[in-house]
Design brief:
Elements: H1 2-15, H2 18-21, H3 31-67, H4 88-108, H5 116-129, E1 135-136, E2 149-150, E3 155-158, H6 163-172, H7 180-199, H8 205-217, H9 219-225, H10 230-248, H11 257-272, H12 274-291, H13 297-323, H14 331-336, H15 355-372, H16 382-390, H17 396-413, H18 431-448, H19 454-484, H20 493-500, E4 506-509, H21 513-523, H22 528-537, H23 540-552, H24 557-564, E5 575-576, E6 586-587, H25 595-605, H26 611-615, E7 622-625, H27 631-635, E8 643-648, E9 657-661
Parallel strand pairs: 4-7, 4-8
Antiparallel strand pairs: 1-3, 2-3, 5-6, 8-9
Helix pairs in contact: 1-15, 1-16, 3-19, 4-7, 4-8, 5-6, 7-8, 7-9, 7-10, 8-18, 10-11, 10-12, 11-12, 11-13, 12-13, 12-17, 16-18, 21-22, 21-23
Length: about 675
Amino acid sequence: MATRLIACVVLAFSLLPIAAWLPGGEVDPEYAARLLDWAYGLALCAGVGGLVAYVARLRARGTIVAAGAGATPTSEPTSRSVGSAGTMFPLLLALGAFALYAIIAQLVFSARPLLIDEIVQVLQGRWYAEGRLWVPTPALREFYSMLHLVDLGDRTYSQFPAGGPAMLALGSLVGAEWLVGPIAGAASVLLFARLLAVLEPDASPRWHRVALLVFAVAPFGAFMFGSHMNHATALLWLLVATVALAGATAREGASPWWGLLCGLGLGVAATIRPVDAAAFALPAAGWLLWRARRGGRPLAVLLLSGVGVAVPMGLLFWVNAQTTGRPLLFGYDLLWGAGHGIGFHRSPWGPIHTPLRGLELLSLYFTRLSVYLFETPFPALLPAAAALWWRQALAPLDRYLLVSAALVLVGYWAYWHDGFYLGPRFMMPLLPVLVLWTVRSPLVLHERFVAQRWLPLALRSAFVAGGAYALLSLWMVRVPQYRNGMTSMRVDVAAAARTAGVSDALVLVKESWGAQLVIRMWSRGVSRSDAEVLYRTVDACQLELTLGALERDAVRGVAALDRLVPLQADSARLVKSDRSPDFTERMLPGFTYAPLCEARILEDQRGFSHFAPIRLTRDGNVYVRWLPGREREIAGQYPGRSVYLLGRANDGVEAPFVWTRLAP
């Protein structure tokens, strides 16, 4: 009954527009188009499968008639041969997967961190590779500040837990952070092969090879492994823990060292993504504790698993103490306040996170998984749901994985942020479970409908049709979408500087007016959370004029916030700016812009860049943010260097850079 309940939940959240039904504030604008695509795709794949099965049955009947009344058709084997994918195939496939992920990293993502999360973690990873947990905060911090970078005191560091940047630091040591994801992906393929051998020991070698191949090429995982996101390395360590847990619980006399390895996997995963690690650690601890009740080796396994968890967690707490000042205080909590954490409260960006909104986010995650997991023309979770419905008997490791997956969902139900990048990225820990139950569907349905000999052939044909469609969709839609997206974050400033003959200079990077407004609020002592809310709820020109007055009067902290908050009175009337290329800027219809604001709009229309990716440039130049009117302040920090303003030729995202040398 439990698996059927899970199947019903998966189907409901995958297929129904729950986000549109609940009053939590989230919507799914693509649901109608997605549903129509699924209807056509299901009809196509089912038609192909039915046609192949019909032709096969006709041919079988013709063979029987031709053979004569005394002939007996060849029967299928009554049992599957015991086996696995062997040792060479997983190794070769892992090497092929590494090549695939490396190609994605290079050709699709330009081997660059694109999302601000990736950029900040790469920056922190480089500091780790240099032997530094933090760097001194510059005196004029507003020229260097970035989102997700903690620079509130005299130390500057990433807001993210130390494990993710530490993984990237391994790539920084060889000047190739982009290799970390592909290596983690290849190792995950090998670990998943071991997991398959434990969970389906009686399945045929062919099934094991197909199952491993599906995991290796699943688009959701492949794109994530090609990125700099910490979800890839977190999944690697969760798989290490799961495989070790399988070894520790295989028999009563299992080696206690499996427990140590399990604990290390969970502990390292916790230093990267604590919520994901907790979802896998809690049921593992319960399982090991239950086995240890009688003492003996299971007790040793439990104790060593605790040691394994304690070592990386101790290092994490030590890093926290060196940066935030408290072992249990993480950078993102210090930067954004208590609202950043799990729970139902006001989020750092303004909206109230409620249980209903959490359900809406789960609905969005499932419907997106139904697309991004395999890119099939039918809901990608349908085969997994079918296998869950028909298979009743579960191995202990199956139950562990399902409980862990459920806890992942509970964790992100209570988390306020909609994690959408390369798909529903918060659902990355579910990838092994979803692939496992997807590839189990032919086995389970064959067991359930063994008399229907045409069914396996029909299913294989339908899956092949869906796979062919997925390949076509990836080639024509998803890969171009990713390759041509976020082009403004792929800038090669070092090459442009060499072409322009700019070296050993101070370069002021021109950002949008909106980005400058946010930084100026930070420099007035307004918290990250309050600045984010104000930027989204106040007309840009009103912010400009008020910030100018605050800067002239040297008003900071609570007094500055008290002057800014009343500007939110007209927030309900705000619209996205239709005058600036930066659509994040807000404008109040009917409000007449002052000449200063008109000048700022004109600067936007002349083009701008993003400072965050440029800060990663290492070519001998110093890159800082341009704050109009404050050029002399920052130039005084770098005497002897020529000063350039880095702009664009126009407002196009790929417009050529323009280097303007400023007077001393």
